[in-house]
Specification:
Blueprint: E1 5-8, E2 11-19, E3 26-34, H1 37-53, H2 64-75, H3 81-99, H4 109-122, H5 132-151, H6 179-188, H7 195-204, H8 208-212, E4 219-220, E5 225-228, E6 231-235, E7 238-242, E8 250-253, H9 256-276, H10 298-308, H11 319-332, H12 337-344, H13 349-356, H14 364-376
Antiparallel strand pairs: 1-2, 2-3, 4-5, 5-8, 6-7
């Protein structure tokens, strides 16, 4: 052996002395499989340099699947249950099937970029393609996981950062209803049990989880204000309540029509409580409940929303697109972006601008007239 390099069979290996975290002493680490002495020497020199800089990462056989399992388990108590479930779905559906068997340390940007393209082209059910947004989310989960791998000294750099996503074909367009279409839908469902839920969703732009997390103590009908302080998601068959998305608690004004709708709904609930007596389950003041007082499950709300649209004759929307509808109607009518952003609970108005830039009126001529009037009194 010369300079810590030796030939074993047809390949070359090198040895370095790495620190043992348990004892603080150094120990030999053999790394092999190099096709030439020169390749082994280059790898040895890089390892020695990393050891001197304190950035050395010991070679491991840990697979991507095994690491992601460890990572999810470590984060179980650090993120919201809904966030953890979303991470788990992306890992199970997309990351493990595509990358799980690979060694964690074998990942590279050039290995990951084709994976994102394959997911976009055929990563869905039955070989159908995925949306760019879904692929972006899967990539974001892996990026976050591998950031932690760098901190834990399992990787020297995060290979996700240099990988390339499929190119977006323009900015995604939100499917929404007009004000007339919203009015038509609400008229069609006016006699159904969950009409107040759809009215409040349309009139405030609140997210599904925020609607499910509402208690009557959050609603001041005299002041026409709804306080958004929590969000309820569904894990299995259980409701799980946490803070709103991005922890953005807010107060949302409602109009006189919604005040009347909610007063009527609260009266109906009170009558149901009396009718059920001691069997009534409603003990925490939830706004949206069954006749027995049992609070609604969020997943049921999504299913019922789809069913509620069947007889409307309107373009089919997801419940989240009703939130987009609320924002779009306001922005097209000229409501300032920062006001809409506050109503929606966005972290910053720039988020609202980015999401809804395509619906904000571009009235350059009006801007010219306003400036002209202010400076020159309208003279041309």
């Amino acid at each position: 052996m010369r300079d810590g390099i030796i030939k074993r069979g047809r390949t070359w290996s090198y040895v370095v002395r790495e620190p043992d975290p348990a004892t603080g002493r150094t120990r030999p680490r053999w790394v092999g499989g190099f096709p030439t002495r020169k390749a082994a020497q280059a790898a040895r020199d890089a390892a020695r340099h990393a050891l001197n800089r304190g950035t050395y990462v010991a070679p491991q056989e840990l697979t991507v699947a095994a690491y992601l399992d460890q990572w999810l388990e470590a984060h179980a108590n650090q993120v919201k249950p809904s966030t953890l479930r979303s991470y788990q779905e992306k890992v199970d559906l997309y990351l493990k099937p595509s990358l799980g068997s690979l060694r964690l340390q074998a990942l590279s940007p050039s290995r990951l970029s084709p994976v994102w393209r394959e997911l976009y082209a055929s990563g869905g059910r039955g070989g159908t393609g995925l949306s760019v947004r879904t692929v972006e989310f899967a990539r974001a989960v892996l990026r976050r996981a591998l950031n932690d791998a760098v901190v834990d000294r399992l990787l020297e750099v995060n290979p996700v950062l240099g990988s390339k996503l499929p190119k977006r074909d323009g900015k995604p367009q939100h499917k929404t209803w007009t004000g007339e279409q919203v009015s038509s839908f609400l008229g069609a469902v006016a006699e159904t049990r969950w009409a107040p839920l759809w009215e409040l969703a349309a009139g405030t732009g609140m997210r599904r989880g925020e609607l499910m997390g509402l208690r009557w103590t959050d609603i001041d009908l005299d002041e026409a204000i709804v306080a958004v302080d929590r969000s309820t998601t569904q894990i299995g068959k259980d409701r799980v309540t946490t803070s709103p998305k991005n922890h953005e608690r807010r107060r949302v004004a409602i109009d006189p029509h919604l005040v009347l709708v909610l007063r009527s709904w609260r009266k109906q609930q009170a009558e149901e409580r009396l009718a059920w007596g001691e069997a009534y389950e409603h003990t925490e003041g939830w706004v949206f409940t069954w006749e027995s007082g049992r609070p609604l499950l969020p997943d049921y709300v999504t299913k019922n929303w789809i069913k509620a649209q069947q007889a409307s004759g309107l373009p089919r929307l997801t419940l989240h697109e009703l939130r987009h509808t609320h924002a779009t109607i306001l922005l097209r009518a000229g409501t300032p972006v920062h006001i809409v952003s506050k109503r929606l609970g966005h972290k910053d108005p720039s988020v609202t601008l980015n999401v809804y830039a395509d619906v904000i009126p571009e009235d350059d001529q009006s801007a010219v007239q306003i400036f002209s009037q202010a400076v020159w009194g309208g003279a041309s």
